[in-house]
Amino acid sequence: MKKSDIGLIGLAVMGENLVLNIASKGYVVTTYARRQETMDAFLNGRAKGKSIIGTTSIQEFVESLDKPRKIMMMIKAGQPVDDVIDQLLPFLEKGDIIIDGGNSHYPDTVRRTAYVESKGLFYIGTGVSGGEEGALLGPSIMPGGSKEAWPYVKPIFQTIAAKTEEGYICCDWVGEDGAGHFVKMVHNGIEYGDIQLITEAYHLMRNVLGLSADEMHKVFKAWNQTELDSYLVKITADILEVKDTDGKPLVDKILDTAGQKGTGKWTAISSIEESVPLTLIGESVYQRFLSSMKDERVIASKTFKQTPITFKGDKNAFIEDIRKALYASKIISYAQGYALMRASAKTNHWNLNYGGIALMWSGGCIIRSAFLGKIKEAYDNNPELTNLLLDPYFKKTIESLTDSWRKVVATAVLNGIPIPSMAAGLNYFDGYKTEHLPSNLLQAQRDYFGAHTYERIDKPRGEFFHTNWTGRGGDTSSTTYNI
Q1: How far is CA 289 from CA 66, 259, 284, 346, in A?
Q2: Which of 72, 118, 106 is nearest to 178 (CA)?
Q3: Average confidence (pLDDT) over 141-157
Q4: Sheet hosting strand 70-73, strand order edge to edge
Q5: CB contact at 8 A, 161 and 130
Q6: Of 16, 70, 191, 374, which is the active-site residue?
Q7: How far apart are CA 418 and CA 290, in angstroms?
């Protein structure tokens, strides 16, 4: 009996659609789900008549696979992944491959790669992006881990992955141990930023300009024919067009509390660990937390006087200003995300291909957009680029957008409209291009109260000084170090 080409554990939305995708490309797939009723419903439903085999035990599942066995888990991140690995190990042989396609935190993937390799096996932690439709029709796939395993899974992964219009396959090897899941985490952090920026543009048009959902549908649809051409702008236009059963916009019936699954939070935490100012993405994460405080916000809205809307300008001109502010902020979001990847690559000794990552994100994934082609060009022109803002195209572009960006942020502030991510992006840009920040005073304060020392502008970098500011202190200073 012919063995299966690959096995997949977990038949939730992503797992089920990935199995169908793999089978549609001519591969035989064995599946296993913890709940028998889930398995039966799938085999008798969408999988019926396809090259998909169901199994009732881990042992039967493993024994059905061709060697080296390729086993992909699409299960909840955290302890369940460790539990399934331990269930698999007694039945596996040297050279078999375990693949985690869920949203695992990359330090867990680093640990699991070492653990599985110590057993004589290979481990791949792979980011998979694209949601339900992407999983079925072609996702962006970001694999990392045991590089020796890549040749065995490459044909399957690159066959089922998304393809760009130019024919590029949105899947390639990312790097060692946790690199694949790290890049997926940054993708999701940027996704948080993109989504928040779009909602801020929507908020401005709805609350400052008074546009209806139908009017905003037309705006976003038109924007998708510009530099903002992207999956998220497209679906925003689609959402604003949908009506509820009473004929009114469905979006207006949805409660304004946002959920999250943790990857944006992990991105923000990683930025703190790497000392990278990920301000725009961080604000996007915090805004989801603030949105969940619905009951408190309702009370506060009745407690504080609301700022009256006073906009009297040209609506069409301001809509164009919002478009430009959205594009400028988007550039900042990606610049920050790429800065985090560079810092973490250095810390973890990963050799990341930044232009290649942009191409992997160009199809199938949630943040896919025409804009990513410009990032690919930037890193092709200069693989050592320290910040996307220093690329000639992005330098020229963001300078052309700055006046509109400032108008939008100022108008929002004057009208009491929160746009934290657009404003954070502008503040980052202004701080990045400021030669002399007020941190000299900050460092003096640290030396005053804690003898933390400071450097001087008239001395070489690396020499540290302490002043007895009060006359009551001594000459002893704290050890100089940076976290």
Answers
A1: 46, 8, 9, 31
A2: 106
A3: 97
A4: 52-54, 29-32, 6-9, 70-73, 97-100, 122-129, 140-145, 175-176
A5: no
A6: 191
A7: 11
**In sequence order, what are the beta bridge partners of 142?**
127
Question: How confident is the model over 221-249, as a mean pLDDT?
Answer: 96
Q: Which pair of tokens denotes residue 291?
A: 């949105």
Specify the pLDDT at position 327. Answer: 97
Phi, psi of 126 (to 5 degrees): -125, 130
Which is it for the CA torsion 382, 387, 391, 393, positive or negative? positive
End-to-end CA distance of the chain: 59
- List the catalytic residue out of 16, 70, 184, 265: 184
Which residues have CB under 8 Å from 250's CB, separation 6+?
Answer: 239, 242, 243, 244
For 4, 8, 48, 133, 455, the CA distances from 11, given in Å and listed in that order, are 17, 8, 15, 15, 58
Burial 173-187 (b: 16+ CB within 10 A, else e): bbbbbbbbbbbbbbb
401/395 Cα distance (integer angstroms): 10
- Rg of the chain over Cα atoms, rounded to whole angstroms, equals 25
Measured CA to CA, the distance from residue 86 to residue 66 in angstroms comes to 20
- What's the CA gap between 84 and 79, in Å, rounded? 9
Can you tell me the distance from the alpha carbon of 265 to that of 467, in angstroms, rounded to the nearest whole number?
40
For residue range 172-220, what is the model confidence (pLDDT) as tens digits?
Answer: 999 999 999 999 999 999 999 999 999 999 999 999 999 999 999 999 9
pLDDT (average), residues 275-285: 96
Q: What is the dihedral of CA 409, 415, 418, 421, to 10 degrees?
A: 0
- The SS3 assignment for 483 reads coil
- Given the DSSP bridges, would you call strands 122-129 and 97-100 parallel, antiparallel or unpaired? parallel
Q: Is the peptide bond before 68 cis (omega within 30 degrees of 0)?
A: yes
The pTM of this model reads: 0.92
Handedness of CA 389, 393, 396, 397 (dihedral sign): negative
pLDDT band at 139 (very low <50, low <70, confident <90, very high): very high
In this prediction, residue 471 has a pLDDT band, given cuts at 50, 70 and 90, of confident
- Quick one: pLDDT band at residue 477, thresholds 50, 70, 90? low
pLDDT reported for residue 264: 86
Instruction: Give tens-digit pLDDT for 61-76.
Output: 999 999 999 999 999 9
- Name the DSSP class of 275: T
State mean pLDDT over 313-342.
Answer: 97
Among candidate residues 411, 414, 409, 449, the one with its CA nearest the CA of residue 429: 409
Instruction: Reply yes or no on whether 191 is catalytic.
Output: yes
Nearest to 103 by CA among 366, 398, 333: 366
